[in-house]
Amino acid sequence: MSQPLDLLEIKDFLVKLALEAGELITSKTGKTEFVDKANSVDLVTETDAAVEKLVAERVAATYPDFEFMGEESYVPGETKLGEKPTFVVDPIDGTTNFIHSFPFSCTSLGFTVNREPVVGVVYNPFLKLMYTGVKGHGSFLNDERLPLRKSVSKLTLQNALIGIEWGTQRSGPNYKCKVDTFNKLAAEDGAMVHGFRSLGSAAMNICAVAAGMLDAYWEGGCYAWDVAAGWIILSEAGGRMVGGNPGLWNPAVDERVYLAVKADEGSEQFINDFWGSMVGKLDY
Ligand code: LIP
């Protein structure tokens, strides 16, 4: 019978690896040419690839029997997230931030079993923010347990500070759904929420929700590697990840449409109110 997984040992391995990856990331920021992927706002650099290579090599050397899924080696239609223990990695989440030297990029190192995130490490080497989460063992920002901020009032849509992203699709029905929903949420004759923030990194947005710095984060179009690590960090902080479309209470990690909500007694009502404010549906 295979040995039970030591999730805390895996977390420690990923923290050490994140620090090593962070050294590489900070050494290259502002010095790396970028190229387009799907279009002129979907960007990648040779540093993304170099960091993924480093992470993949360390994982293969330490956990040769586990699977690996990374953004830069993903092959659409071929790479599938299976039930085996899998490292689900975005070497640099917030690549556009990295290119612009805006200090909100991170390495996002997730670990799933049966497609469920169980260990997550998200490290922003510019601001020295190490977010960690292990199933059943809580989540932390550096040495502080999450959430850092207790709600001063019950979470409501009107009082919410919401993480959003424009993403890389800038035309078509998904873009229209986002823009129309942003407007409905912000407008005086809509929900008139307190505000929006776009950190430019799904992982950083989710960790900000886990910490209680954001009340929620809504996005469609990102992938399992963008969210896997943040997901367990969020849930171990008492937060909740539901789908980015109405009624999707239990999304898969590769659902590609997400709504992260902080720990709060009002979160279920918030989720229903948010979904009720959407204009159209996301389809990725
Ligand atoms: C980014 C995501 C972000 C999304 C961007 C991009 P990347 O990941 O974290 O949420 O809005 O379009 O996909 O490409 O920087 O690893």
TrEMBL record:
Q: What class of enzyme is it?
A: hydrolase
Q: Name the pathway it acts in.
A: Polyol metabolism; myo-inositol biosynthesis; myo-inositol from D-glucose 6-phosphate: step 2/2
Task: Write down the chemical reaction(s) this protein catalyses.
Answer: a myo-inositol phosphate + H2O = myo-inositol + phosphate
Q: Give its E.C. classification number.
A: 3.1.3.25
As cofactor, the record names: Mg(2+)
Keywords on this record? Hydrolase, Magnesium, Metal-binding
- InterPro entries cross-referenced by the UniProt entry: IMPase, Inositol_monoP_metal-BS, Inositol_monophosphatase-like, Inositol_monophosphatase_CS
Q: Which family does it belong to?
A: Belongs to the inositol monophosphatase superfamily.
Q: Which Gene3D superfamilies match?
A: 3.40.190.80, Fructose-1,6-Bisphosphatase, subunit A, domain 1
The domain of life for this entry's organism is Eukaryota
Q: Which residues form a coiled coil?
A: none
| Protein name (Swiss-Prot/TrEMBL) | Inositol-1-monophosphatase
Q: What Pfam families would the database entry show?
A: Inositol_P
Source organism per entry reads: Myxozyma melibiosi
